[in-house]
Amino acid sequence: MDSDLFLVSRAEDSACQPAIRLRGGKITIGRTPQCHIFLPDPTVSRQHAVLSVTADRVTLTDLKSRNGTWVDEQRIESTTLKKGQEIRFGDTVFVLSGDPNKESAMELDLATDVSRTIRKTINPAESLKPRQLEVLSWLIQGMNEKEVAAQLGISRETVHNHIRRIYAAYNVHSRVELLLKVNPMKGIKLTLSRPDE
Questions:
Q1: Of 60, 65, 110, 174, which is most buried by a Cβ count within 10 Å?
Q2: What ranges make up the beta strands (E) of the chain?
Q3: Which residues, in sequence order, are CB contacts of 30 under 8 Å at separation 6+?
Q4: What is the chain's Cα-based Rg?
């Protein structure tokens, strides 16, 4: 039995469908393609959460995910959902809605959407949160994850997650790539000499 509820994506450039109709029964959510709702987001656990959908209720249960399941900015273990609530799995955000188009990111003003895209292209740091900017500044100064965690008084796991988001913002896969994008070596000339010279 299908419900009249939808998970509507809040992402500007979501890799998943903009609206997902909630079918009756258990619906798994996670990063593996075997999940009913596949979220290719590195901040989402492989088996992140499960929705239990009946005729009169939708229950969301976190499956001990690393980054948590959040409803209206409150981390949950299990809760009954209501229309209009914002649901976040890692960095992927949805709204529970009775209308697949009502909360859709597709309704964003085109001019605003274009300006956001341009801003991201020009300066990826603008998409980072304040704590991620702090982590970035320590990385640029040469600290490793353990040193950054000690400096900021947070866990290494949290620092690691911030670094993953920083890499995503700058579209890089390593510290070297990040440093080259953040602080390109302008004017440096490499000279190679042969051993026999």
A1: 60
A2: 2-9, 19-23, 25-30, 37-38, 49-53, 58-62, 69-71, 74-76, 78-80, 86-89, 92-97
A3: 37, 38, 39, 44, 45, 46, 47, 48, 49, 63
A4: 21
Question: Max alpha carbon distance in the chain (Å)?
Answer: 82
Q: Which two tokens stand for residue 62?
A: 């976190």
pLDDT in tens, the chain (197 residues): 456 788 888 765 445 557 888 888 999 999 888 889 988 888 999 999 999 999 889 999 999 999 999 999 899 999 999 999 999 998 889 999 887 765 443 333 333 344 344 344 457 777 788 898 899 889 888 899 999 999 999 999 899 989 988 888 888 888 888 888 776 554 444 444 455 54
Give the predicted TM-score (pTM) of the model. 0.52
